[in-house]
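Lecture notes, part 5. Sequence design as translation. It can be helpful to think of inverse folding as translation between two languages: the language of shapes and the language of residues. The source text, in structure tokens, appears below.
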């Protein structure tokens, strides 16, 4: 795709919307080419409907410094209620967060009850199928703890292992659900599946679904990640101190107790007692986020500054040039007007950063300079957040790369006709037209419900809801366990491989895998007897 995109870059018939679409699709092959197409789209002029998409891609490509005009435009559209953008108050955001939490709890209950397909659940949540069918099993396998770890619900508990259709394995056309594709890849049996069955078919939305998953697990604000890495480096270089200030039970700050948190008070007292400043957003917001603190005592104002104050100090006393100062102010954004004159901190004093202030300064290219000119302290929890985010990024990169390998494999298999494509059904019976249902993974599920069957067809799905039904019309619905049995019968894998895969599923906390007599006997035969006692395996 990137090769074709390079040829199109200089063509005059590429409009702004096409440029943004190309930028989206080639980002994993050539990020610099994606950036070029993004910039081309902005230069050509995007419509109101594409402003939010362009803004999201700009942040995703690390172009934070170039999205300011888009951000301003989005605010204008929000005030007018255009472009699918709505302005929201802090109260609206709190209400939205509460609704999202309740919705998430409801989805979790639906998943554990097995009353809806996982394709639909993930389309309505922050989870992606690749996390459920690769990341979580991988974590669980590393340190199995089924009581504490969340189960991966791949099979309905009421199903036994049927064997009557095993004789037709080499004649079967197996129609793989997206869950089956992911789990087969996770268990490293996808090549064996290709060799074993007469034909392997997949819904036409399989690759779009995998691409959507890769986008979902990717970090959407790489600049923020760079800020976290910078902060960790500064702590390790001992240019930033981490603190856990004690909370005070009584003090004159008691008058603020109803408006700010105890943690904020502890940080403030640490800064003041060391003749320093607490750095926060000004004017100061209440801890419940509903409005600003009504009024601050003078002794608080004397030890409270914001990022703009730090930038002014670095301009007045060095080392920022006028141009660097102007650029920094642009990146910091507009400063809200307060009721008092903000103090300019003297260089060399202590600055205690509250919350995500380190990331704000890093994004404005001021963090390193600030740490060089001031004594800086941050909350220990902020350092832990930074480290967790960096570790999370390593997992996201690994997931994206794993999906990239799978996408390439499926694409090549389609080109070489190892996979046949089941066309998307033109009708989506019973599916809401709401944007939240725009899910290629759910479309895969729909296709398997509606494709025209052939003789010896079998549907393979590792979704507990889907395979709770033994058949779709006259088509058997099976799961990973039946497939593994097929692979043994066709001698595609050895018996040791079979039980190794089953053991991996159990270690991954995949439920509900039937326990068979042969499995128990196999493991008993592997057990070692020492001093007339069976050694635990």
């Amino acid at each position: 795709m990137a090769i074709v995109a390079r040829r199109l870059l200089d063509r005059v018939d590429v409009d702004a919307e096409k440029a943004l679409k190309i930028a989206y699709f080639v980002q994993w092959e050539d990020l610099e080419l994606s950036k070029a197409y993004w910039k081309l789209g902005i230069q050509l002029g995007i419509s109101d409907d594409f402003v939010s998409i362009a803004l999201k891609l700009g942040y995703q490509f690390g172009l934070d410094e170039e999205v300011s005009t888009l951000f301003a435009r989005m605010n204008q559209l929000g005030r007018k209620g255009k472009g699918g953008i709505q302005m929201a108050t802090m109260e609206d955001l709190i209400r939205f967060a509460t609704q999202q939490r309740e919705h998430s709890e409801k989805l979790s209950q639906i998943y554990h009850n097995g009353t809806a397909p996982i394709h639909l659940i993930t389309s309505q949540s922050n989870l992606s199928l690749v996390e459920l069918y690769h990341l979580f099993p991988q974590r669980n396998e590393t340190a199995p703890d089924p009581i504490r770890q969340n189960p991966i619900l791949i099979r309905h508990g009421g199903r036994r292992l049927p064997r009557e259709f095993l004789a037709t394995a080499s004649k079967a056309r197996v129609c793989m659900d997206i869950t089956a594709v992911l789990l087969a890849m996770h268990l490293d049996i996808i090549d064996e599946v290709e060799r074993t069955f007469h034909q392997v078919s997949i819904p036409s939305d399989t690759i779009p679904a995998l691409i959507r998953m890769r986008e979902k697990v990717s970090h959407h604000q790489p600049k923020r990640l760079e800020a976290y890495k910078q902060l960790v480096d500064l702590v390790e270089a001992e240019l930033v101190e981490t603190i856990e200030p004690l909370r005070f039970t009584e003090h004159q700050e008691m008058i603020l107790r109803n408006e700010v948190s105890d943690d904020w008070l502890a940080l403030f007292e640490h800064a003041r007692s060391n003749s320093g400043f607490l750095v926060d957003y000004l004017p100061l917001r209440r801890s419940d986020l509903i409005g600003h603190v009504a009024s601050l005592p003078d002794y608080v104002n004397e030890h409270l500054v914001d990022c703009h104050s730090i930038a002014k100090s670095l301009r007045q006393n060095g080392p920022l040039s006028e141009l660097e100062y102007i650029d920094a102010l642009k990146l910091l954004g507009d400063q809200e007007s307060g009721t008092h004159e903000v103090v300019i901190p003297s260089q060399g004093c202590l600055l205690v950063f509250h919350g995500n202030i380190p990331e704000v300064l890093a994004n404005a290219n001021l963090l390193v300079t600030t740490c060089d000119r001031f004594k800086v302290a941050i909350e220990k929890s902020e350092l832990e957040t930074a480290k967790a985010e960096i570790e999370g990024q390593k997992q996201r990169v690994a997931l994206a790369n794993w999906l990239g390998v799978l996408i390439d494999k499926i694409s090549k298999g389609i080109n070489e006709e190892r996979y046949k494509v089941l066309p998307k059904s033109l009708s989506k019976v019973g599916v809401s037209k709401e944007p939240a249902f725009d899910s290629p993974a759910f479309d895969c599920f729909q296709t398997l419900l509606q494709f025209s069957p052939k003789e010896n067809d079998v549907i393979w799905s590792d979704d507990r809801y889907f395979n709770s039904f033994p058949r779709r019309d006259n088509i058997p619905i099976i799961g990973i366990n039946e497939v593994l049995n097929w692979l043994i019968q066709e001698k595609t894998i050895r018996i040791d491989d079979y039980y190794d895969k089953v053991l991996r599923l159990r270690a991954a906390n995949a439920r509900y895998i039937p326990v068979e007599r042969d499995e128990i006997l196999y493991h008993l035969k592997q057990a070692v007897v020492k001093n007339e006692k069976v050694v635990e395996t």
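The translated text above is only one of many valid answers, since several sequences can fold into similar shapes. The chain has three domains: 2-80, 96-205+425-537, 222-388.
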